[in-house]
Amino acid sequence: MSETTYEYSPGLAGVPCAKSSVCYLDGSIGKLQYRGYPIEALAESCTYEEVAHLLLIGELPKAAELAAFDALLRKARAVPATVLGTLKSLPATTHPMTALSIGVSSLAAHIHGDHQKSAAFRRDAAIQLVAKLPTIVAAWERVRSGKEPISPNSALAHAANFLYMLDGKEPDALVAHTMDVALVLHAEHQMNASTFAARVTGSTLADPSTTMASAIGALSGPLHGGANEEVLKMIATIPASSPDTIRAWAEDRLAKKAKISGFGHREYKVKDPRASILQNLSMQVFAKFGATPDYGMATELEKQMATLTGAKGVYPNVDFYSGILYSKLGIATDLFTPIFAIARISGWLAHWLEQLEDNRIFRPNQIWTGSADRNVTQLAAR
Ligand code: ACO
Q1: I need a labelling partner for 56 at 20 to 30 A (CA). Which of 19, 86, 126, 211 fits?
Q2: Which of 95-104, 156-165, 277-286 has the lowest mean pLDDT?
């Protein structure tokens, strides 16, 4: 049996799977850019709506373009009653990522058109999905606590409206700004697992909602978006806040070959620039609303880890500080990853649009490790 030999890269590390102009990343120096704009400048100067326009349409909008784009987003926020009905039929114990995945899959019954031939429909579907994701997440948060979903408030911007739909209160300006920046920071990140999942599903010409549900599934795992939830649970297991205790805890975990959540990244060999921006944002939130003990533990763990794993290039990633920040904003731990999805949907859709511009179905190969040409013995004789 002849077999072509392929070079095998576990986890496809270093293997290009697409040509893309969405996001540039040089993890050796912590450089991250969306369509050529540095993440630091986008976080400083642009709203999530501007960044979504940049990712989906390709350019930062002029004022009139932003007004038109934002109006479409605000108009598209409500989700069909049948989607809310589907959420209401789920057990209250359903994880919000599962509820989000089900909610987005059910949008496939409502967002339909010719995504294969019509660029106008693809753009409209993308706007619908960006607009509706926060509504589904907030609706599930209400439904699982036995409350009615809150309708979107078209007077509020994207991030502020999401917070409003959680509890019906217009958020404090700093809290709304913090959520907006967090969405900007999580909006896109090159060829990560969930983006790859979106591209693979999109390459089969599946519809846009189903393609996004596929990406949401990939994001849900603890090695990817789920890590921000794990960070808080992990910090709670550190027995005390002294540097010696934290170091001993980390050494013990490393000796057992257990991963430390919120650290490490396939691409970054230095601290993730998004973690630094989130840390600065956290300082503003703590200055206004008071610090949390988790933050002190986290900064000490970062310090200890620098001497324990720094030589391997294992530093904090974006998930390390996001959970601590969200928790201070009063957000439930299991909503952290859905918030990641609310942000990342713009990036996933930008890759979906790009994939369909020049599509070829993904169909990789394998390194065969099994037996071949075996004889089947009849059941009675085995
Ligand atoms: N804690 C301790 N050691 C680590 C960690 C960590 N978090 N991450 C990597 N390392 C070590 C590995 O043990 C390995 O060491 P070795 O060479 O001595 O065996 C080396 O660094 C390389 O690690 P890999 O697991 O091979 O790196 P990979 O690129 O496959 O995985 C990943 C990257 C999954 C992010 C990994 O770092 C990890 O599991 N981190 C914890 C989970 C996490 O925070 N995920 C969020 C990532 S960001 C995001 O998805 C938004």
Answers
A1: 86
A2: 277-286
Residues with Cβ within 8 Å of 222's Cβ and at least 6 positions away in sequence, in order, are: 229, 230, 261
Q: Give the length of the chain.
A: 382
Active site residue 207: no
What is the sign of the dihedral through the CA atoms of 140, 115, 54 and 321?
A: positive
Q: What is the DSSP letter of 376?
A: P
CA distance 178 to 325: 9
Helix, strand, coil shares, percent, the chain, to 5? 60, 5, 40
Dist. CA 339 → ligand 1 center (Å): 22
Domains of the chain: 19-220+342-357 (1.10.580.10), 227-328 (1.10.230.10)
Residue 7 confidence (pLDDT): 86
> What 8-state DSSP symbol labels residue 263?
B
The per-residue pLDDT for range 83-105, each reduced to its tens digit, is 999 999 999 999 999 999 999 99
Q: For the residues of 103-140, what is the DSSP string, one character each?
A: HHHHHTTTS-S-TTT-HHHHHHHHHHHHHHHHHHHHHH
Q: Are 185 and 43 in contact (CB under 8 A)?
A: yes
Residue ranges of E strands in the chain: 23-26, 31-34, 37-38
> Catalytic site residue 319?
yes
Predicted pLDDT of residue 2: 53
Catalytic one of 189, 265, 294, 351: 265
Distance, CA 312 to ligand 1 centroid (Å)? 10
Is pLDDT above 60 for 56? yes
